[in-house]
Write a structure and sequence with these properties.
AB_hydrolase_sf, AB_hydrolase_fold, 227 residues, 8 strands
Length: 227
């Protein structure tokens, strides 16, 4: 399944995305983790592209997309809103991993009727009680804007309680995929999320760790395809 890399202007800023599948197929938008980019979805897209038009977006500060002065989950949520409108996606399936998963929760809370189905890989919304240290900036060049890291860590350390309070407003059928004990993400938090979203199921892929779709692609797809 061939993947095409494309550029698009969103709200005056230039973004890059990868498209796999027929333009007439039902749309699926995929959002990557912190420090990765849309290419991390290529193996998933090559399979799901048989049924879906998979649109994997480089989120701001990542891949071929714009570097900006400001980064936040809310800004990335708004980027997704502009992307969906620019691509004329009235309703679509949304899949997010880690940072992209949090953006997916926020988008689904704000625009519940735009999301056909929601798939979140190994992340709850940021929660209080867990503190992340600010790492030093690496000396070697990075494939993403380092400024994203302290901005996102700040939000992880001082999360907006509304992100959890509004989980019950996500009306769309939702699938959470956890990476089991091998993941640094507390799996009991995924269970909490699954109980707060009205129509939600949780599937754990034991031994996968945080990068489920990269570590255990077949198990990830076996969870996603029936859903």
């Amino acid at each position: 399944m061939e993947t095409h890399m494309k550029k698009i202007e969103l709200n005056g800023l230039l973004f890059q995305y990868r498209e796999t599948g027929r333009p007439s197929a039902p749309p699926l938008v995929a959002l990557h983790a912190l420090g990765l980019n849309a290419e991390s979805w290529d193996e998933v897209a090559s399979i799901l592209g048989g049924k879906y038009r998979v649109l994997a977006l480089d989120q701001r500060g990542h891949g071929g997309s714009v570097r900006t002065d400001e980064y936040s989950f809310e800004l990335m949520r708004d980027d997704l809103f502009h992307f969906a409108n620019a691509m004329d996606l009235e309703k679509f399936t949304l899949m997010g991993h880690s940072m992209g998963g949090t953006v997916s929760y926020l988008f689904s809370e704000a625009y519940p009727r735009r999301v056909e189905r929601l798939v979140v890989e190994d992340t709850p919304p940021p929660f209080t009680g867990k503190f992340f240290e600010f790492p030093p900036e690496p000396s070697e060049p990075l494939p993403f804007d380092w400024k994203v890291v302290p901005s996102i860590i700040q939000q992880l350390n001082e999360p907006n309680p509304e992100w959890w309070d509004r989980l019950s407003e996500i009306l769309t059928p939702t699938l959470l995929i956890g990476g089991g004990d091998a993941s640094h993400v507390p799996q009991e938090k995924l269970l909490e999320v699954s109980k707060l979203i009205p129509n939600c199921q949780l599937i754990t892929v034991d031994g996968a760790g945080h990068f489920v779709h990269l570590a255990k692609l077949d198990a990830f797809l076996n969870a996603v395809k029936p859903f």
